[in-house]
Amino acid sequence: KEHPVGGVEAGRFWYSIGRDGKMMKIDLFQTPDKMLVAETQIAYDARDVAVSGDGKYVIGGGYWPPHFVIADAVTMEPLKVVSTRGVNVDGEYVNESRVAAIYTTPNESAFLVSAKELGQMWQVDYTDIDNLNIVKMDTAKYLHDGFFDPTGRYFQIAANASNKMVVVDTKTAKLEAMIDTTGKKPHPGPGANWMDPKYGPVGATTHLGTGMVTVWGNDPMGHKDNAWKIVREIETDGAGVFIRTHPTSDYVWADQTKHPEPEVQQSVQVISKATGEIVKTIRVTEEAGKAALHMEFNQDGSEVWVSVWNRADNSNPTGEIVVYDAKTLKEKTRIKGLTTPTGKFNVYNRTNHVT
Prior knowledge:
It is built from 2 helices and 29 strands. It is mainly beta. The two termini are 22 Å apart.
């Protein structure tokens, strides 16, 4: 499984990290046999990667060893290795704190690094690599995956072991809020932001342990009364991993990959932004052993791409990507012959934080 992040030079270079800890630089302008430009081994178990706003640096985080590595974005030469050991939010010393989510802040010259077992978000200023300035914010355990609000100022991340959504203010480098969720183990994946007609700007997450989409207000300037408060809890058929929308779409899509029943895990649910109600359940596949997961919109929001895993045979090209019309919700085509397709990342949407 890989977690790519948009690159530099008008989206030419793409940086990806594998679960094996190899951080790779990929040239999207080349043919497949020449796409891999450079790589470096930053860990033996890893999850995430990000590119600095100025395009000079790329950062990857390790589950093992528990650290993050900042490398030259051109050569992929490691420049800085920083351990994430320390004292956690409970006052206990932790020698091994895994790094999960890593993001580049849209408005600041800094990376965000989540230290899972510490329960901390680290804001790492990359303007002086030789003398890193790191602000460590106590939050909650275990920080895993998150997304920015539409302004790019606030980062919303799941602390799934604590059943909380954590919000940090990247302008002040301080904890902004912690939102308790009734849904178990929040997991937003790329997350979703939209304008709710009743509550104003909102963000949302799916849950690994509950069939629910939790929605909260995320506009402290314009809608202070709803800011960082749960405004909707939408019951779904099953627990999921990813939620996604687009500014031009009337809908929010949520998968249900964690549900044990095939009929549910093979379906995604479509939620109306206007009403907060599920308007359609789409059975993406009915083939035995397969599951539907991870939605991604194209640049203009006219299509939604959904992956189909083959759990029973994940080493052969038996997976597919199903493309839907984002307005009519009807299937357009299927891209077959893929080996365990998971994340799909539109270059424009990801580099511009379109959620």
